[in-house]
User: Which sequence fits this backbone?
C-alpha cells in the first residue's frame, strides 16, 4: 500500500469491520439474539453504510414483529431501496459464513459500542477544535459546550439531531411497562406529601417545578421536606443548592425535621438527654440518606449544571432561590435589565432539567403585590421579575398561610399549597399542616406521636 493511501486509512474514524459483520451474521444465523442486539445498538453505531442499511432493515422488521431470516431480510431490503442486484445476496451469505458463532454476540456488541463511543468523542473533539479556530467563542462558552457534548455521550444520547418517532415510541413503551409493573401510584418522585403527590403526579423527570411564596411562609422548609423524603426513599442522589443558608444551618433544619426536636432548642443547644438521643438517631438516618449540599452563594445555572453532570444516579435538584442566582455572564452583565436576566436563568433551568432528565425544584420570591389585596393568596402575576418564569415552569406552586397575616385565624397552622400551573393535570389547592417548631409540612390527617 502506498504511503499516501496508508495515511488516508489512518484518518478514518475508529471502527471494526469484523465486529459489524459478526453482529449482523449472528442475527441472521440465530434470530433469538436479535432482541439483545436491538436493545443495545442503534443504526448509527455501525460505521459502514452497507452494514448500517442491513441493520436498519432488521431493526424495522423487529419493530413490526416480523420473521427475521436471510430471505425475509433480502425481501425487505428490496422494499426499502437498499437492495443491490449484484452484491446484496452474496454479502448476506458472506456475513453468515464469516461469523464464527452467534454465541459470542455479546462480545461483538461490546466491540461495536466501544468503536461507536470513540467516534462520538472524536466528532465532539473535532467540533470543539473548529469552535476554537473560529475564534468567536470565549473559553467559558467552549468549556460549557465541551461538558454538554461529553455528558450527552456519557448518557448515550446524541447531542443534537432528529430522531425517528419509532425510536421514541420504543422508549415510551418501555416507560409505560415500567409504570405498569411499579407499585407506586404516582409516576414521578414523591414529595413526601400524599395529597400534593396525587395533585401533581409527583416530581417528574425533566420538569421545572417552581415553588414561590413571600418570605417567612416556609419555602425552604417545604423544599427540605421534599429533599429529605427523596434522599431517604428514592434510592437516588438528591442535590440541594443553597444560595442563602449555610450548610450547617441546612443540616440543623434537616435534623429538626427528621427527629421532631424544636428548632429553637437545636439553635441554642439547650437539649435534654432524650433530645440528644433523638438527634443522634436523626443524624444516623441522615448519614444513610443520599443528600448532597452546596452552599456556594455565587453559583450560576452553568455551574449547577456542571456539578450535577458529575453526580451518578441523580434523582432531584433543588435550588434556593432563583432571584439570588447570577446570570451566566456574571458581573459583566450587571447593568442589564434584571427581568431579562431572571428570564435567562429560568430558561437555562428548564434546559438543564431536560438535559439532566431529572426534576428541578427551584424556589422563588414573590413581589409585594399580594400585600395590598384583600385576598392575599398569591397569583401568577405576583412572581417577581416574572418574565418567562411562569412560561418555562411545568408546575408553579404557591405557599400561603392565613395565620401569617392573621394570628386570630381559626387554624393558624393551616397551610395552602396553591397549584397555579400544572402541565400534567388540573390546578387547585392542597391543604397542608404547618409545624413551625419543627419547620416542617405534613398531610392534614398526619399525627406526630412521641416515643
Assistant:
Amino acid at each position: 500500500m502506498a504511503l499516501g493511501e496508508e495515511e488516508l486509512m489512518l484518518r478514518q474514524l475508529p471502527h471494526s469491520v469484523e465486529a459489524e459483520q459478526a453482529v449482523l451474521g449472528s442475527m441472521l444465523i440465530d434470530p433469538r439474539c436479535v432482541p439483545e442486539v436491538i436493545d443495545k445498538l442503534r443504526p448509527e453505531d455501525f460505521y459502514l453504510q452497507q452494514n448500517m442499511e442491513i441493520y436498519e432493515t432488521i431493526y424495522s422488521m423487529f419493530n413490526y414483529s416480523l420473521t427475521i431470516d436471510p430471505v425475509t431480510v433480502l425481501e425487505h431490503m428490496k422494499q426499502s431501496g437498499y437492495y443491490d442486484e449484484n452484491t446484496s445476496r452474496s454479502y448476506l451469505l458472506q456475513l453468515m459464513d464469516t461469523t464464527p458463532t452467534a454465541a459470542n454476540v455479546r462480545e461483538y456488541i461490546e466491540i461495536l459500542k466501544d468503536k461507536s463511543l470513540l467516534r462520538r468523542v472524536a466528532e465532539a473533539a473535532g467540533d470543539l477544535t473548529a469552535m476554537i479556530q473560529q475564534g468567536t467563542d470565549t473559553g467559558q462558552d467552549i468549556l460549557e459546550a465541551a461538558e454538554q457534548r461529553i455528558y450527552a455521550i456519557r448518557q448515550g444520547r446524541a447531542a443534537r439531531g432528529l430522531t425517528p418517532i419509532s425510536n421514541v415510541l420504543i422508549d415510551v413503551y418501555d416507560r409505560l411497562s415500567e409504570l405498569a409493573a411499579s407499585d407506586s401510584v404516582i409516576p414521578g418522585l414523591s414529595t413526601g406529601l400524599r395529597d400534593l403527590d396525587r395533585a401533581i403526579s409527583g416530581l417528574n423527570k425533566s420538569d421545572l417545578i417552581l415553588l414561590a411564596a413571600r418570605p417567612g411562609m416556609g419555602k425552604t422548609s417545604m423544599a427540605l421536606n421534599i429533599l429529605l423524603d427523596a434522599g431517604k426513599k428514592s434510592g437516588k442522589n438528591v442535590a440541594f443548592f443553597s444560595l442563602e443558608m449555610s450548610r450547617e444551618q441546612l443540616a440543623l433544619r434537616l435534623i429538626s425535621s427528621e427527629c421532631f426536636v424544636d428548632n429553637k432548642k437545636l439553635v441554642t443547644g439547650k437539649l435534654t438527654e432524650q433530645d440528644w438521643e433523638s438527634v443522634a438517631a436523626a443524624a444516623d438516618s441522615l448519614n444513610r440518606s443520599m443528600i448532597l449540599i452546596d452552599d456556594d452563594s455565587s453559583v450560576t445555572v452553568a455551574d449547577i449544571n456542571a456539578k450535577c453532570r458529575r453526580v451518578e444516579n441523580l434523582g432531584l435538584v433543588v435550588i434556593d432561590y432563583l432571584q439570588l442566582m447570577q446570570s451566566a455572564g456574571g458581573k459583566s452583565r450587571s447593568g442589564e435589565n434584571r427581568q431579562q436576566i431572571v428570564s435567562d436563568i429560568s430558561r437555562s433551568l428548564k434546559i438543564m432539567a431536560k438535559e439532566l432528565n431529572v426534576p428541578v425544584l427551584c424556589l422563588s420570591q414573590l413581589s409585594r403585590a399580594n400585600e395590598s389585596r384583600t385576598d392575599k393568596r398569591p397569583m401568577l402575576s405576583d412572581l417577581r421579575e416574572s418574565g418567562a418564569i411562569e412560561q418555562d415552569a411545568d408546575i408553579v406552586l404557591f405557599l400561603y398561610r392565613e395565620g401569617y397575616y392573621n394570628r386570630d385565624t381559626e387554624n393558624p397552622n393551616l397551610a395552602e399549597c396553591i397549584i397555579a400551573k400544572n402541565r400534567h393535570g388540573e390546578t387547585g389547592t392542597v391543604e397542608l399542616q404547618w409545624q413551625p417548631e419543627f419547620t416542617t409540612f405534613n398531610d392534614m390527617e398526619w399525627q406526630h406521636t412521641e416515643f
Observations:
- The chain has two domains: 12-182, 183-443.
- The first strand starts at residue 208 and ends at 213.
- Residues 105-134 form the longest helix (30 residues).
